[in-house]
Design goal:
five-stranded mixed sheet; 18 strands
Length: 271
């Protein structure tokens, strides 16, 4: 999966300048297509500064090192970005990354601040990522990654993911999903999900994951996704690919709402 990393050197870094329309701050999230490398994902990384960095003079130049590390320990991307402190606490930087799943490390050693996370990239798709630098060592995270391509219309059905009881049958009614920590990033033609287990979910032994889509009437379709969750942590997250196309969305018309749907059209694959 990460063969591109061995054939291409790291892409040059880009620093997002102040928005021309406002003269300051961060522009709307629109990665620069001109920097797209064939077969790579274009990444716009929005970094919230730590307290130590936020206290420096607006004219101070601050450096942040960004690294990607795959599950074998290889580092296909490693660059240092220098940005001006300015008046905004969020700095946006851009780079191209090979497809695959990686540990994302951001460090500002002069200020003893860092961030750590995991990210998946899809070839020739834009990816926006929000990260916050912590004062001192950043807390570790242990997500299950889920991502896929999707048509622009996917955004209009307010997609999100929920946790359901493992014994809920297909066409079974859904009252309230199980409380859970699931982060979803919806981009124009893809989406990215981080799912986190906790003691209450782990105590259940197993649960079901469903994609929830809003209808025009304010009700919901729930589509079962065959994803094992929670899963034991083995030092690197499992990754599931779940692509959605227009035909699959259209197939939901006329299906019952607020029950668990188990259509055969929707399929997952290992990352």
């Amino acid at each position: 999966m990460n063969d591109l990393a061995t054939r291409y050197s790291a892409a040059p870094p880009y620093v997002t300048e102040p928005c021309p329309s406002t003269g300051a701050g961060v522009c709307p999230r629109a990665p620069r297509k001109s920097s797209f490398m064939i077969g790579f994902a274009h990444v716009v990384l929005h970094v919230s500064l730590c307290n130590a960095m936020a206290r420096v003079s607006p004219h101070t130049s601050v450096a942040m090192r960004v690294r990607l590390i795959d599950r074998s320990g290889r580092r296909p991307y490693d660059n240092v970005f220098t940005v001006e402190r300015g008046s905004q606490n969020v700095k946006s930087i851009e780079f191209d990354a090979p497809r695959g799943e990686y540990r994302l490390l951001i460090a500002a050693p002069v200020y003893n601040c860092d961030a750590t996370d995991y990210a998946a990239f899809i070839s020739e798709h834009d990816r926006n990522i929000d990260e916050t630098l912590s004062d001192g060592k950043a807390p570790d995270t242990r997500p299950l990654l889920l991502e896929g391509t999707a048509p622009p219309s996917f955004l209009y059905v307010a997609p999100t993911f929920v946790v359901l009881d493992k014994d809920l049958p297909c066409k079974g009614p859904i009252d309230e999903p199980i409380p859970s920590h699931i982060d979803v990033e919806n981009d124009q033609n893809a989406y990215y999900v981080h799912m986190y287990s906790d003691p209450s979910i782990a105590a259940r032994g197993a649960v079901q994951i469903a994609l929830r889509l809003a209808t025009v009437s304010g009700e919901f379709h729930y589509i079962r996704i065959k994803v094992p969750f929670p899963v034991p942590w083995i030092g690197f997250p499992d990754d599931i690919q779940f692509n959605v196309d227009e035909d699959e969305l259209d197939s939901l018309a006329g299906e019952p709402v607020d029950v668990l749907l188990c259509p055969k059209l929707f399929r997952t694959s290992a990352g």
